[in-house]
Specification:
Elements lengths: L8 H15 L60 E2 L27 E6 L16 E6 L5 E7 L15 H10 L2 E3 L5 H8 L7 E2 L9 E3 L9 E3 L1 H10 L13 E3 L9 E2 L2 E5 L5 E7 L4 E7 L10 E3 L10 E2 L1 E7 L1 E6 L4 E5 L3 E9 L2 E9 L7 E3 L7 E2 L4 E7 L3 E5 L2 E5 L6
Parallel strand pairs: 2-5, 3-23, 5-6, 9-22, 11-25, 16-23
Antiparallel strand pairs: 1-9, 2-4, 3-4, 7-8, 10-20, 11-12, 12-13, 13-14, 13-15, 16-19, 17-18, 19-20, 20-21, 24-25
Amino acid sequence: MIKMKNHNLKRLAALACAILALAGCAGETPAQPAAPAPLETPMPVYEVVTSAPTATAVTFTLRPSSTPLPTETSFPATEMSGFGYGPQDFPPGINPLTGLAVSDPALLERRPMLVKISNFPRSLRPQWGLTRADHIYEYFLEDGLTRFIGIFYGQDASQVGPIRSARPFDWHVVNMYKSVFAFGFADDRIMDGLLESDIKNLMVIQKPDNCPPMCRIGSDNDYNNLFTDTHELSLYVTNRGTSNERQDLSGLRFEARTYITTGGGFADQVAIRYSNDSYHLWEYDPASQRYLRSQETEAYTAGEETYQPLFDSLTGERVAADNLVILMVPTSYWFQSNSTVIYSIDLEQQGPAYALRDGKIFEITWSRTVLEQLLTLTFPTEKPYPLKPGNVWFEVLCDTSTHEVDGKTWKFFFNLNLP
């Protein structure tokens, strides 16, 4: 029988630390200098039941890792920075999430909006609003599937979705961006935890009287038909009395002209397989100087992958990224029973990552040591990694994931190695 823990936040934090120690993602890194103290006020964590979860059809293939990439020391350190913005003191009208000037500076005088966007079932694709997001996080859900978190700030989208349910990882991202949080529903254990957390006043879920901004389009019997309008969403939280003033979003560095492109490795294609059911491909397009996304159309079978380009139903545009950042993040059980598994993706302290821009790939480090702080991206020498001005897709993998390299093609394999 599962017993819910209802301790205060300090005892929850202690329980979280114990669970992470016992059920953390395998593959320890060499000893490092003492890490900063754990983030305060963690989202409530429930007891891990040791019985095995229900088996799924997902299988993972271990692949050898490639040799390390060249670091930024392959070119003069004095030429690291070109003209750019950040990580602090962004000029008026410059979006700190993209390094680009916005069409309407008033858009920056509000909180970002975080919207949960479904990626499965395949029949709901193409989704709405992906190309209007400044940042998108893709992460492992369960049963081999993935889901998106869209961060909308520098521009609005009149229709975003389909919107789906919350997971523990969302708590980290809401805190980082100090954002409004729009989602459809959640497992009772997750909802209880969110309502006990410090983000409860930022949450927007569907209710009988809040369309707009949260509206179902189509049959009431379809759970994949919930959408939002980000302009209406921002007005809604303001009108209900939620604080919606501009937040400090410092942390990222953007450079259009940069010498880092003389280093790194080549990456014309990046394939990411979360499971046999969920995999996708990014291909660098020299004409647009962006990475274009294609998504799987059916489950992977022995050496055969099938893709089709992914578009945005709102804009009709191909889904593309100016920057790709592949985060390797410790993953453990947040809740486990014979029938249910919920994962904890622990985006705290620091870890390894790969960053891509302009057809090049670099080994970097992600860091988050303060609760309400964006990720910082640095080279091993702690110099800031300069993103290309534009949007960013964050691919969140377990830190035991593997990769292989074939010429200019990089393949990453999500390898969740938990008991």
